[in-house]
Structure formats: structure tokens, C-alpha cells
């Protein structure tokens, strides 16, 4: 017997069991086989055979039949109690599976570095909850190594970020979301503000605000540094100190518009943009919710690229 045929048999047996439970509840609710048969749209003999088959399977009587109708036996009361819970759960399963297919239920997770989280998560969280309030949306913020561990464990389905650190990991694939421009910004009272064209050497002597404490993230030309993974704190520190900050203008759009922060025109800035990618495991089926997240992220990154 093939596995497919066995699955079909098991499915039919499950459906028959659920139908019999519905029949039991109908009789218990109405106290009458004839009325219950009308309620479930079958003949009374067919309903009686359904109840009898259940009783024979367990060797128990569910109903006492009398002139005044039918009443539940102790076994019948137990059967009704469980039937209500099972049918409710079956209904929930059917409803959730149908909604899951449209990204409206289930669980999905996404990981990001501090910059992408600051840029995308507030809008993405609002959009996700407005569209699918019953989806459990798990987020992780951290280093590429931490995100990769969560991806392999299945805690998250997607990673958003620069993929150079993950591109050689076996089984990992990526697709481009877009390119985000970067700029060096300072507060408007900064000595470098308003000086026109600058070179990287002009930044010597000013500390850099940055998210990670390693050489690849250090801003060229800077002396000291203020290191913090929280970009809201980095912004506040830059607004009050002489720090220079290599950041996406989209993250500080309000401050730039209000003039509290200004861009520096650094002509030899070695990193003027960052490639943003979507990273996931090759060959693993992604949930509909994660597929919707990917499309939403692509739209968001495209909008931010024009800032």
C-alpha cells in the first residue's frame, strides 16, 4: 500500500470521525434523532447508523432512548464534552490553515543589524500588524553571526543587511533589495558644517559615531569613537557633540530637514552607499507571511534609496 493511499485513508477516517462527532452533538442539542437528522441534513436512519457505529467502536451507549426523547448517558456526556473541544479545534485549524496560505496567520521572523532595524522595523511592524494582526512577528537585532545562528535554528526566516559576511556560508542564498546611500552628517554647530567640499583628512581629530567596534566599521579619518548599537542614542550623541556620523540620510531625514543635522560634502568618501540584501536558506519553504515581508521590504528600501 503506497504512502499516498495510506494518507488518503487516514484523512477519510479523520473526516468520518469528525462527522460522527457533529452527529452526536446534534442529537445531544436537540434531544431528538429526527430533529437532529434535519439539522445535519441526512436521513434519520443514516444518523442512527452513524451514532451506532461510534457506540460499537467503543462498546458504550451514548444515549438512552425513551418516549420523551433521548438523554445522554455518562459516556455520552463525556463524548459531548470532548466533541465540542475537538470540533472547535478542527475549525480553528481549518480557518488558520486557510489564512496561513494568504499570510494572515502563523509565525514568521526576521533578523537585522542595528541600522536596518532602525530604518525598517518601525514601519514594517506597523504594516505587518495592520495587515495580519494574528501573525506572530519575531524580530532579532544583532551581528551577522547572531543572525545566522537564528536563521539556521529556524527562529527567523529572513535576514536583511549587507551580505558580505554571509555570502560564503553553505546553503545560504540572497537577493538584492536595493542600494541605500550613505552620508557623513554632523550637528549644525560643528566646525566642519558649512565649509563646502571636504576631504577625509579634514575629519581627522573628530570622533566618529558608529554601531560596531571593529576596524571594518571605523570611519576613515576619524580619531576616537563613540560606539553604540542603538541608532537613536547615536543620533542624540551626534546632536550634542563633535562626532561625525556615517549614516543613511533616510534615518535622519527629519533632523536634516529641520537643519539640526547637516551633510558634509566629503569628495573622497570611500563608502557612499550600502548594498542591502535579503538572505535566507536555500531549499527551505518560506511562509506566505515571510514572502509578503520580502515584497514590503523591497518597496521600503526603494523608497529610502531616493532620500
TrEMBL record:
<keyword id="KW-0805">Transcription regulation</keyword>
<dbReference type="InterPro" id="IPR036388">
    <property type="entry name" value="WH-like_DNA-bd_sf"/>
</dbReference>
<dbReference type="GO" id="GO:0000976">
    <property type="term" value="F:transcription cis-regulatory region binding"/>
</dbReference>
<dbReference type="InterPro" id="IPR000847">
    <property type="entry name" value="LysR_HTH_N"/>
</dbReference>
<keyword id="KW-0804">Transcription</keyword>
<dbReference type="Pfam" id="PF00126">
    <property type="entry name" value="HTH_1"/>
</dbReference>
<feature type="domain" description="HTH lysR-type">
    <location>
        <begin position="16"/>
        <end position="73"/>
    </location>
</feature>
<comment type="similarity">
    <text>Belongs to the LysR transcriptional regulatory family.</text>
</comment>
<keyword id="KW-0238">DNA-binding</keyword>
<dbReference type="Pfam" id="PF03466">
    <property type="entry name" value="LysR_substrate"/>
</dbReference>
<dbReference type="InterPro" id="IPR036390">
    <property type="entry name" value="WH_DNA-bd_sf"/>
</dbReference>
<protein>
    <recommendedName>
        <fullName>HTH lysR-type domain-containing protein</fullName>
    </recommendedName>
</protein>
<dbReference type="InterPro" id="IPR005119">
    <property type="entry name" value="LysR_subst-bd"/>
</dbReference>
<dbReference type="GO" id="GO:0003700">
    <property type="term" value="F:DNA-binding transcription factor activity"/>
</dbReference>
